[in-house]
Each structure stands twice: as structure tokens, then as C-alpha cells.
Amino acid sequence: MNDLARLYRVIEATWPPARVWREAGFDLRDGDGGGKRVSAATAVDAPDIDAAETAMLERGQRPLFMIRAGEDALDSALAERGYARIDEVILYARDCAGLTEKPMPPVTCFTIWEPLAIMQEIWAQGGVGRARLRVMGRAAVKTAILARWNEKPAGVAFAAIAEGICMVHAVEVLAHQRRQGVADWIMRAAAFWARDHGAERLAVLCVADNKAANALYTKLGFAEVGRYHYRQYPDE
Predict the structure, then answer these.
(1) CB 132 within 8 A of CB 123
(2) Residue 1 has what pLDDT?
(3) Collapsing DSSP states into helix, strand and coil, what is residue 17?
């Protein structure tokens, strides 16, 4: 559980919300349009669901809670209120060393910050727009990864380091470049960059329903460390 708690902190540090404040026994977040991960409330101590819900509604935000390991009571309480369970996410981790034993082919991946226009275009095709680029910009130790395959741009990812762990986010591979090992090389490039910047472990998040991505991470030797999901305020 200590390792899982550390990974939860690393998620926030490497994919930061615009603002976090404590209210009603929760950490509430302003995601600035950057998606669920930077907008969801998380329980801290003696959570008051009604007060947290009111605080989010008053800000014009649809109430959203992240449910982590050991928070079954909160999960049940939200379910009783009609909150829908959505987006189960798996947290994976492994040592960097095992991914740096295989040499990178020349001009396959480049670590670049700030992202080039072509990188932003690839992300945009995968639904990663300007708000999520702003999330990336808030991380302290970071890089973007551009992959090339068949002498053309093939994919992108974002990587950032906190507490000695490099977490990879926003992996996107162009449709016509898939199933050729591009994502594999992206993860290996992240491991090399992480190692060179003092990180010993590599972590990644994956929606449980994404069978192809889960298979990739398992093949690369990542082990499941834990899971979380969201509870979202019901429609009218």
C-alpha cells in the first residue's frame, strides 16, 4: 500500500491540476479543462460528500470523485446517491533497467520539450488538446517523446519524474503506424530518459478496457500495482 500511495502522489505531480485545495474532507481540484484526472476530488479525512458536492456545483463543475484502493465505504456511499462508476484505471510499474538493455535504433525516438507542432497535431488526433498540453507544462521535470517509423512521424508521449519515478502519460500512435512496435519503442525511450534523469522506476496508467495497451505493458514487464476508478454525478 505504501508503494501505491507513492504512485498516487506521482500521478498528481506528473499530471498536475491547475489548483488543489482542501475542503469538506476532500482535496478538490480545478482541472482547467484537462480531464477527469486533474478534476476529480479525492478523500482525505472525515469526508463530507454533500459539502464537497455543493462546492463543486457552485463552481460550475459536475461533481466527480476518484475512488482509490481501500475507499470502499466512499464508493458505496456515492453509488447510493446515484453516482455512476466510470473509467477503471490500472496502475503499472517496473524498473527502468529492464527496458534499457535493448539499444534504441537510430532516429527512432526523440525527447523534446517543448512539443513540436507535429507532436501537438498527433496528440490532437487522439483527443489530447490544448488543455492537456497545459497540464503537461505544469509538471516540473518533464519531456515529450516523438517517435518516427518508416521515416515518418509515428507517435508521441509525455513523461515526467517525481519521487524517483518516471510516469508516462498521453501515449498516442497514429493509426497507420500501429502494430509495428512504435509504442514499445516509446516506452523504452521513456526508460532511457528516466534513467538519465535519476529515476529508477517507470510507471504508466491504462484504462482497464484498453486491451491492446494492457497487453503491451504486460509484455514489457510492467506489473499491476493497483487500480482506481471514478464516480460521476448523475444526469438530471
Answers:
(1) yes
(2) 46
(3) coil
Measured from the Cβ of residue 180, the count of other Cβ atoms closer than 10 Å reads 14
Tell me the pLDDT band of 235, cut-offs 50, 70 and 90. confident
Backbone angles phi, psi at 44, to 5 degrees: -120, -65
DSSP 178: T
Q: Around Cβ 9, how many Cβ atoms within 10 Å?
A: 12
Strand 201-207 relative to strand 84-95: parallel, antiparallel, unpaired?
antiparallel
Q: How far is CA 179 from the centre of its chain?
A: 22
**All 3 cell numbers of residue 228?**
482506481
Q: Grid coordinates 503506424 are at which residue? A: 177
- CB neighbourhood size of 37 (10 A): 22
193/30 Cα distance (integer angstroms): 30
Kindly tell me the number of DSSP H helices and DSSP E strands found in the chain: 7, 11
Q: Give kind and range of the element (H or E) at residue 145.
A: strand 141-149
